[in-house]
Amino acid sequence: MKTKVAFICVHNSCRSQMAEALGKFYRSDVFESYSAGTETKPQINQDAVRIIKDLYNIDMNETQKSKLLSDIPEVDIVIKMGCNVVCPILPGKHIEDWGLDDPSGKSDEEFIKTAKTIEEKVKELARRIENKEIKLD
Fold first, then answer.
1. Nearest to residue 35, comparing CAs of 26, 27, 47, 23?
2. Is 19 domain-assigned?
3. Is residue 38 situated within a structural domain?
4. Whole-angstrom Cα distance, residue 131 to residue 11?
5. Which of 13, 25, 18 is nearest to 65 (CA)?
6. Given its phi and psi angles, is residue 47 left (phi above 0), alpha (psi -120 to 50 degrees) or beta?
7. Domain-embedded: residue 135
8. Contact at 8 Å (CB) between 9 and 83?
9. Distance of alpha carbon 122 from alpha carbon 125, whole angstroms
10. Where does the Phosphotyrosine protein phosphatase I domain lie (predicted)?
11. Mind listing the pLDDT tens digit for each residue in 108-119?
12. How far is the C-alpha of 50 from the C-alpha of 47, rounded, in Å?
């Protein structure tokens, strides 16, 4: 069975959504990607949508929406995107914090930098899962 990964932050509108999109795009062969938050926004951050569309040709408006922690299945790995406030609590066999700053309201450069960092981390996470570096049993 494929490993399930949840990318979480408070609003599930920007970083966690980008991570869900890039996880699906690059490594859906290794893990299933979900994102969620403790609160939802009526729509995903439109700057994030635009940047992900420009960089990867993925339309998050079509494939994703803001979700609550209770909207996603039980997962094996919980990735906190980095919260200045209290990060949501979600049980998982492996939990880590990527400590990414929220680019919301900042320049396109910040969004691109965040997207590229998430891309690297998603690929690295997949490698660690494949190499059994993350203990899930």
1. 23
2. yes
3. yes
4. 32
5. 13
6. alpha
7. no
8. yes
9. 5
10. 3-128
11. 999 999 999 999
12. 5
What's the token pair of residue 51? 């940047």
The token pair at 21 is: 């999109």
Residue with tokens 């992900």: 52
- On whether residue 137 sits in a domain, the answer given is no
Residue 86 in this model has a pLDDT that exceeds 80: no
pLDDT tens digit sequence for 4-15: 999 998 889 999
Kindly report the three-state secondary structure assignment for every residue of the chain.
CCEEEEEECCCCCCHHHHHHHHHHHHHCCCEEEEEEECCCCCCCCHHHHHHHHHHHCCCHHHHCCCCEHHHCCCCCEEEECCCCCCCCCCCCCEEEECCCCCCCCCCHHHHHHHHHHHHHHHHHHHHHHHCCCCCCC
Tokens of 40: 């939802």
User: How many independent structural domains does the chain possess?
Assistant: 1
CA neighbours closer than 13 Å in the CB half-sphere of residue 55: 22
Per the structure, the complete domain to which residue 26 belongs is given by: 3-130
Could you read off the pLDDT of 19-56 as tens digits, one per residue? 999 999 999 999 999 999 988 889 999 999 999 999 99
- Residue 32's DSSP bridge partners are 4
